[in-house]
């Protein structure tokens, strides 16, 4: 990818200083409705049992507890040192599995679960016994011999080499580390401290050999971060050599996440600096040999994500990019999200309400959405741009039997400003994202977002 650093001027950043979604779903979470209840969710599950039998499923499990609070956190997580709370939660999670199992059994439906993603919170905060119990329970729903992938998120504060080896024995083949930044001052400012030596020790060759892929999550825009300091972090990351890197932007929303008030606003880099930190990291990683998959994902050429781009099986889901073609998603645990057929749904946030629903033998649904045909077309358009950085109008037109130019007349008009800014190239009935546009790709997708038209900014939602 051609280096476009020189084109990133203060003026350009000012013009694109509008919040955009990461499009881990379309429509985004902010459009999902609280009027969507567990009854609507059951209607969706009924359709899944009749029409969705062949599509593989990714099971997402949300474990909400953490040992200590990172000040940048925007996840739904609860800090505890009380193991009884964890055991209590697991007993309810197991009952949610029972609820789903009973539903599927009643409908003679055996879900074709091919992937598991265990996220949080900090799943590695579970001790070995708790983790083992979870696996045994999952076996009532999943044929582990049928699994293609099992990812677990790990936190350096709660993971050990012993646990990593135990995970391997239980079928976990990918891990994702929350690294964020290696600069000691930045780490202190966000209360997330770990040394490169600790990570290196955890990822000994013996342990690395047992996983197909290791991901590092990094965050830019953190307090006390600068281009220089983040460059040092990237150099350490390159030495530690993860197979994948996810480079996310810190979202400062202290009104929604009270603990973020512990971050000094005067320590935060400004917008220009943030964009430059991101762009310099992108080119640094590309120069080193990582492939830039899109938005915030990088992978080594040997990683299956790169194969996904090559064989056009890349797709975007609630966790970012994935290879292997589209899977339906079923969520378990508070805040987890579901996506199947033309339904989205999200589980309740509050643990007390989650427990109450399970006690009442109800699916713990907070909100959801049933996609219209227009949503499905726009979702496809946005996914094409995100995954393959181009859009063939006639292909979409043929697939959905629409006249693309007519259907998206207003959007094509809006794209002209992006073409003028060098983000896009237009040829006959195709747009291609330029190297500069790759850095601003969410702005290109936003043009096709029916809910954010007319320059409307995106707002992070959730309690
Ligand atoms: S480990 Fe993750 S979920 Fe837990 S507090 Fe830190 S950022 Fe939040």
List keywords for this structure.
463 residues; alpha/beta; Arc Repressor Mutant, subunit A; pyruvate-formate lyase- activating enzyme; binds iron/sulfur cluster; coproporphyrinogen dehydrogenase activity; EC 1.3.98.3; oxidoreductase; cytoplasm; metal-binding
List ligands, each type once: iron/sulfur cluster
* CATH homology superfamily of the largest domain: tm_1862 like domain
Strand proportion, as a percent range, falls in: 15-25%
Tell me the CATH topology of the largest domain.
Answer: pyruvate-formate lyase- activating enzyme
Helix content: 25-40%
Point out poorly predicted stretches.
none
Going by helix content, strand content and strand pairing, the class is alpha/beta
Total of helices: 18
Count of discrete domains: 2
Shape: globular
The number of E-state strands comes to 19
Average pLDDT works out at 94
CATH class of the largest domain: Alpha Beta
Within the largest sheet, what's the order of strands? 9-10-8-7-6-5-4-1-13
CATH arch. level architecture of the largest domain: Alpha-Beta Horseshoe
Largest sheet composition: 9 strands, mixed
Distance between the termini: 39 Å
Radius of gyration of CA atoms, rounded to a whole number: 22 Å
């Amino acid at each position: 990818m051609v280096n476009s650093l020189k084109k990133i001027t203060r003026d350009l950043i000012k013009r694109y200083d509008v919040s955009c979604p990461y499009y881990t779903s379309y429509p985004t979470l902010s459009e999902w409705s609280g009027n969507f209840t567990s009854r609507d969710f059951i209607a969706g599950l009924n359709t899944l049992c009749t029409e969705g039998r062949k599509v593989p499923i990714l099971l997402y499990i949300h474990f909400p507890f953490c040992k200590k609070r990172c000040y940048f956190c925007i996840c739904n997580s609860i800090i505890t040192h009380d193991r009884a709370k964890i055991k209590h939660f697991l007993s309810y999670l197991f009952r949610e599995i029972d609820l789903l199992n009973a539903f599927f059994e009643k409908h003679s439906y055996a879900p074709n679960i091919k992937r598991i993603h265990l996220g949080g919170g900090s799943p590695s905060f579970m001790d070995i016994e708790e983790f083992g119990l979870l696996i045994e329970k999952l076996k009532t729903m999943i044929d582990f011999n049928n699994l293609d992938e099992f990812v677990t998120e790990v936190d350096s504060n709660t993971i050990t080499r012993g646990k990593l080896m135990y995970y391997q024995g239980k079928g976990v083949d990918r891990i994702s580390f929350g690294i964020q930044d290696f600069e000691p001052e930045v780490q202190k400012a966000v209360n997330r401290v770990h040394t490169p030596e600790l990570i290196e020790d955890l990822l000994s060759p013996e342990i690395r050999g047992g996983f197909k892929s290791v991901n590092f999550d990094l965050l830019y825009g953190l307090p006390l971060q600068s281009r220089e300091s983040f460059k040092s972090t990237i150099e350490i990351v390159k030495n530690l050599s993860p197979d994948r890197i996810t480079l996310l932007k810190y979202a400062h929303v202290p009104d929604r996440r009270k603990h973020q008030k512990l971050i000094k606003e005067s320590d935060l880099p400004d917008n220009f600096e943030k964009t430059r930190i991101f762009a310099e990291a992108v080119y640094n990683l590309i120069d080193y040999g990582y492939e830039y998959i899109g938005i915030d994902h990088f992978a080594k050429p040997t990683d299956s994500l790169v194969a996904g781009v090559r064989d056009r099986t890349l797709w975007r889901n609630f966790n970012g990019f994935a290879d292997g073609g589209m899977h339906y998603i079923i969520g378990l645990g508070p805040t987890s999200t579901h996506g199947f057929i033309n339904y989205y749904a999200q589980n309740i946030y509050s643990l007390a309400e989650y427990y109450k629903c399970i006690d009442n033998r109800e699916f713990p649904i907070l909100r959801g959405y049933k996609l219209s045909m227009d949503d499905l077309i726009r979702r496809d358009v946005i996914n094409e741009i995100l995954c393959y950085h181009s859009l063939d109008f006639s292909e979409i037109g043929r697939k959905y039997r629409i006249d693309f130019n007519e259907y998206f007349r207003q959007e094509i008009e809006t794209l002209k400003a992006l073409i003028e800014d060098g983000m896009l190239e237009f040829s006959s009935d195709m747009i291609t994202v330029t190297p500069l546009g790759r850095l601003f790709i969410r702005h290109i997708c936003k043009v096709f977002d029916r809910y954010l038209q007319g320059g409307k900014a995106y707002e992070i939602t959730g309690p």
